[in-house]
Amino acid sequence: MSASTRGVAGAITAFCLFASLPVYVQLLQPFSGYAATGQRIVWTVILFSVFLLLFGRSDLRQIGGHLRRSQSWPGYLLGSALVGVQFWAFIWGPMNGMTLDLSLGYFMLPLAMVVCGRLIYGERLRPLQWLAVMLALLGVLTSLLQSGGISWLALVVALGYPPYFILRRYQSLPAKQAFGIENLLLLPVAIWACISFGGVAHPFAYPLSDMVLFAGLGLLGAIPMLLWMGASRLLPLGLLGLLGYLEPTLVFFVGILQGEHVSADELVLYGMIVTALMVLGIDAVLTLLKRRRAGRLSS
Q1: Is 123's pLDDT higher than 80?
Q2: Inter-residue contact 243 to 5 (CB < 8 Å)
Q3: Could you tell me if 103 and 247 are in contact, meaning their C-beta atoms sit under 8 angstroms apart?
Q4: Cα 228–178–201 angle (5° rounding)?
């Protein structure tokens, strides 16, 4: 199996596992979404630590080295807070009937990243990217006029991830090490959430059946991240970005299957956002083909 084939398979598996989380968390009812998020982080730290002990001891040593640099802690804490909010949103939303709002946020995220690239890094937008941004903006304005606003959860996802990615670019940490540091720094808050919102003395004070469910939640938090990290090293960024549209699409259909409904006003917004994403996809494919053609000519 070629590297690109392994990368595509890993990315698709990762996004399918991410999309299964809204289904899985329904098994955790009636636990609090805050307690469930805490359990996800606790078990992710446990399972990820075991993985590094077995297969990535050099990463484990480097994580320790990063944490010994006190001047880096403000950035690490900020990154942990930003990604912790996203961990919470991906669990709290589906547990409270807001899976479709979550999917809308992930549909809007690529467009938010394009705008951030233009505003913060001065990246030039190609004509099709401008068209995508205008279509998305038109959809947002239409939603504001028709229904008075966009779900706050969708905005948390769409506007919360860009600062995190900007910070990650500034820190320039390997993805695996950043994932380990972020979860480790979130651990005290996670333990507090388990105790305060779970009404228990410690995170493991549950029957075995509940602990198995929590461990499964940790696996669903860790495995797709590892697969996605592996795919990001094997695939061109353009192709990885196109595959990334699979996740919100699957989450959207999960929300529909769970009985959530899209209003007529929301359909207009979804239609504009999806059309904008299709334009971005066409632009990414054309750019990828152009680069490959240039590469062949130069060789």
Answers
A1: no
A2: no
A3: no
A4: 100
Residue 172 has phi, psi (to 5 degrees) of: 50, 45
Tell me phi and psi for residue 79, to 5 degrees. Answer: -60, -40
Write down the residue that tokens 């004070």 correspond to. Answer: 205
Query: How far apart are alpha carbons 3 and 89 in whole angstroms?
Result: 33
Residue 230 token pair: 């592996």
Give 122's DSSP letter.
Answer: -
Task: State pTM to two decimals.
Answer: 0.85
Please answer whether residues 129 and 56 qualify as being in contact, where contact means their C-beta atoms are separated by less than 8 angstroms: no
Would you say how long the chain is, in residues?
Answer: 299
Q: How far is CA 180 from the centre of its chain?
A: 15
DSSP 259: T
User: CA dihedral in degrees (60, 38, 150, 238; nearest 10)?
Assistant: 20
How far apart are the C-alpha atoms of 277 and 248, rounded to whole Å? Answer: 11
- Pair 270, 262: CB distance under 8 Å: yes
- Largest distance between two CA atoms of the chain: 66
Tens-place pLDDT, residues 174-223: 878 888 999 999 999 999 999 999 888 899 999 999 999 999 999 988 88
DSSP 273: H
Q: Which residues contact 100 (CB under 8 A, 6 or more apart)?
A: 252, 255, 256, 260, 262, 266
145 to each of 4, 100, 148, 291, how far by Cα in Å? Answer: 44, 20, 6, 41
The residue among 45, 151, 153, 150 whose CA lies nearest residue 91 is: 153
Which alpha helices (DSSP H) does the chain contain, by range? 3-24, 33-55, 57-67, 73-95, 99-121, 127-147, 152-171, 175-198, 208-234, 237-244, 246-257, 264-298
Please give the backbone phi and psi of residue 126, each rounded to the nearest 5 degrees, phi first: -75, 160
Q: Within a 13 Å sphere around the CA of 82, how many CA atoms are in the beta-carbon half? A: 20
